[in-house]
Amino acid sequence: MSSSPPQSAPAGHRAGTGDRTGSVELRSVSKSFGGVTVVKDLDLSVEPGEFLSLLGPSGCGKTTTLRMLAGFEQPDSGEVLVSGAAVHHLPPHKRDINTVFQSYALFPHMTIAANIAYGLRQRRTVDRTEIRSRVSEALDMVQMTRFADRKPSQLSGGQQQRVALARALVNRPSVLLLDEPLGALDRKLREDMQVELKLLQSRLGTTFVFVTHDQEEALSMSDRVAVMLNGRIEQIADPYTVYERPATAFVAGFIGQQNFLTGTLADGGRTVEITGGTVLLSEPATASPPGLVRVAVRPEAVVVAEQQPAEPTNTLPGTIAAVSLLGDVLQYVVHADTGQEVLARVPRRQADRLTGGTRVWCSWAPSDARVFPAEAEAEAEAGSAADSAAPMESTK
């Protein structure tokens, strides 16, 4: 797998103006710790004003990449450029970058306003009037003006996260780095902050580079997502493309959930013969090698019905083993007659109220099947395992 997949620039950013302020570029960057290579010959370009997420399981190299951007780690080789200028030789405070961490690191004895002003005061180049003005502006950005005189202990976790964000933005950096900033929040608050972060970034036009292992965070906020594995970028694209057209079996297994079916290409790559049936593809799988392949089908693409479909292809008979209510979605686990477990997710209002033990047919459209080489099986399983169990990456 190349470490430099195609990186088409997202629409709507400042790239076409010639102004490179806020751009980020990594050129053939590598980093090792104790003889273990964590980032391998990585190339990455971030456009001015873009919201880009580095997404991947623990140990994939995403946090190390962010730390090299921030200046907390030095690359063993390669270059780091910000706004078109090389910065890999500069310490963190010399870079036009600020970082927001999961740990808010607020000074408990200071008011919220004083916490936000701290960095400006340390510079000794900004006068008091300007500091007051910029602190007021930053408080307004994150809707925390009325809490300016409170101490951190008097705020909720979400409010403290807003203060940490304001403290970084008050310096007006060209690039803001965010390292798992929402990880300590409960789910509802995290979802609310995702919306607020995206709206704030869109309003400011500041370049955001966001590190997370949470797919929903990355997909909901980003202009583009770079999915990482073993120190390399597996795929970089807009969220829709990453989800609907994964470039590798790992990406397919890591982003969301997949049903993987093993079979053999037939009919010039137009079909895949699997145990118990035939999978019809919307276009020939010409890129796949002859022989065994893996077919990936999203759970939301699977239709579950008690009646056998008229079209015999892309169908598997089986028995419902479990039914789960996931908010507005019903999830069925179907034990196919082939022995495979098939996962299906159906909008609750559209679903038949099927129960465990019901005989059903699972089917899907040809356009919903993606084909990968069979040797990608371990890669796909690694993605699925990482998806369900990935903790936060070490700050190393």
Automatic annotation (TrEMBL):
Its EC number is 7.6.2.11. One of its GO terms (molecular function) is ABC-type putrescine transporter activity. It catalyses: ATP + H2O + polyamine-[polyamine-binding protein]Side 1 = ADP + phosphate + polyamineSide 2 + [polyamine-binding protein]Side 1. Residues 381-390 have a biased composition (Low complexity). GO terms for cellular component: ATP-binding cassette (ABC) transporter complex. Residues 1-23, 374-396 are annotated as: Disordered. Keywords: ATP-binding, Cell membrane, Membrane, Nucleotide-binding, Translocase, Transport. Pfam families: ABC_tran, TOBE_2. SMART domains: AAA. It is an enzyme of class 7 (translocase). It comes from the Bacteria. Coiled coil: none annotated. Residues 24-255 form the ABC transporter domain. The complex is composed of two ATP-binding proteins (PotA), two transmembrane proteins (PotB and PotC) and a solute-binding protein (PotD). Belongs to the ABC transporter superfamily. Spermidine/putrescine importer (TC 3.A.1.11.1) family. Part of the ABC transporter complex PotABCD involved in spermidine/putrescine import. Responsible for energy coupling to the transport system. This is Spermidine/putrescine import ATP-binding protein PotA. It comes from Peterkaempfera bronchialis. The lineage of its organism: Bacteria, Bacillati, Actinomycetota, Actinomycetes, Kitasatosporales.
